[in-house]
Each structure stands twice: as C-alpha cells, then as structure tokens.
Amino acid sequence: MKRKHLESALSSIQREFPDPKITLEQYPTSPSLTASVILVALERGDLGPGTTALDLGCGTGMLTLGCALVETDLVLALDCDPDALQLAKENFEDMELETAVEWIHAQVASVTSSTTKVSNKSNNKRRPPPKTNTIQASTLETRQLIAEDEDGVLLRSNCVDTVLTNPPFGTKQNAGMDLRFLRTACRLARRTVYSFHKTSTRAFLQQQVTAWGYSFHVVAEMQFDLPQVYKFHKDKSRDIAVDLIRVDLTCTEN
C-alpha cells in the first residue's frame, strides 16, 4: 500500500479523544506517524499477510486500523479506557475491513502490583480468526522478562508476532510508564516491538533494552505534534522530538 493511500484512509476516521483523560496522557496519533510505523514494519515483514499484531494502548485505534489496512491476519487491540476502546471499535466498523480484530479491556500495571483489570474481551464477528497457532502460547518459547500476568495484562507471553505501541511518555504522575509499556510489549511479542519514545530518553531506553538481552534500533526520528488538548496547554500545538524504536526479540545483545 502506498503511503498516501494509507494516510488518506487513516485521515477519514475520528482519531481525537472526545473526552481526553490527562491521567492517561491521551493524545491522538497522527495519520503521518501511524503510516510511518506501519510501512516500516510492513517493509521488514513484521506486519501484513501471515502475521499477527497487538496494539498496546490502542486509544482510538489508529495503529490497529493501520495494521488492518495492510492485511495483517489478526490484530489484538488493548486499552484501559472503555470510552476509547468503544470509539476504536466504531472506527473499525466504519472502515468495513476484513481483518479479524480482538478488543481487550486491560491496564498495564507496575510489575510490583498484584491488581489486574481485564474485561469485555470480544471478537470481531465479520469473520472468524484465521487458523493460526501464533496465539497458542504452548507452541512458543516463553521469555522470563516478566512473569505472565504480573504486569496486569492477562495475555500469554509471545502471543503475537509484533507489538506496536505509542505509550504514555511518563509525566510526574506517570513516571516510568513508558518503560512499563515497553517491557510488557517485549513480553507479549514473539519477534518485534515498535514503540514511540521521546528522543531525550533514547540512551536510557537503549541501556534498558540491551540489559534485557534484546537488540535496540532507532528506525526513524520524528516530530510528534502535541495538540492543545488540555486546559493547561498554552500553545495551539507543540512539536516533540520522538524516536520510533524497533526491538528485535530474535537478535540478542551481549
């Protein structure tokens, strides 16, 4: 799929949060940023026919829809906000895509927390999920970066080929949330993780991922357009330098 066609399709949906929640750091992901990560992953064989994916913290569904538009076999879309999850479902239905999508209400928690929140798991009924063993964890190697369910997400380790996430960057109230998302993404993915992070955190994240034993690469440097969403925002928009990182779980680092 050409970039202009992907961006055009993504521009047609409701990507803004109707009632954004600052505690969740909810900001819309632009069609341009979404197209960038989808096309990079598609070119490398991490998305598209024959693959499965998870959008971790799906929000209004931009990355989920991007995966579906390039004909990924199965997409799991996970978010802790039921309002955002409902809007993502509606966006998917409006586009009338054939990809099987499974919607999951769950929250990424600190690995020290024993509280889990998971509910409302339902399948897209347009067609049954494809016959694949990818989400049958018994057929996959289970990594021990985090014990299953310790992060509050009741999904088996290595349950999809690729995880994509645009995590909270981590304000004072949510310090470390970006790393929690990345750690959970590495638990759930079988092959690769794509994640957006502030460029200022690059050295720290690379150190962490390398310590986990995985390969860390910055595949693109971008500008995240932060719109005037909350009352305390003084500017109509502000650009934040972000990295699109790719974690290769099949290539270990010493």
Automatic annotation (TrEMBL):
Taxonomy, superkingdom: Eukaryota
SUPFAM superfamilies: S-adenosyl-L-methionine-dependent methyltransferases
GO molecular function terms attached to this record: nucleic acid binding; rRNA (adenine-N6-)-methyltransferase activity
Keyword Methyltransferase found: yes
Keywords assigned by UniProt, alphabetized: Methyltransferase, Transferase
Keyword Metal-binding: no
Region (Disordered): 114-134
Signal peptide: none
InterPro entries the record matches: DNA_methylase_N6_adenine_CS, rRNA_MeTrfase/Polyamine_Synth, SAM-dependent_MTases_sf
Protein name: Putative methylase
Source species: Fistulifera solaris
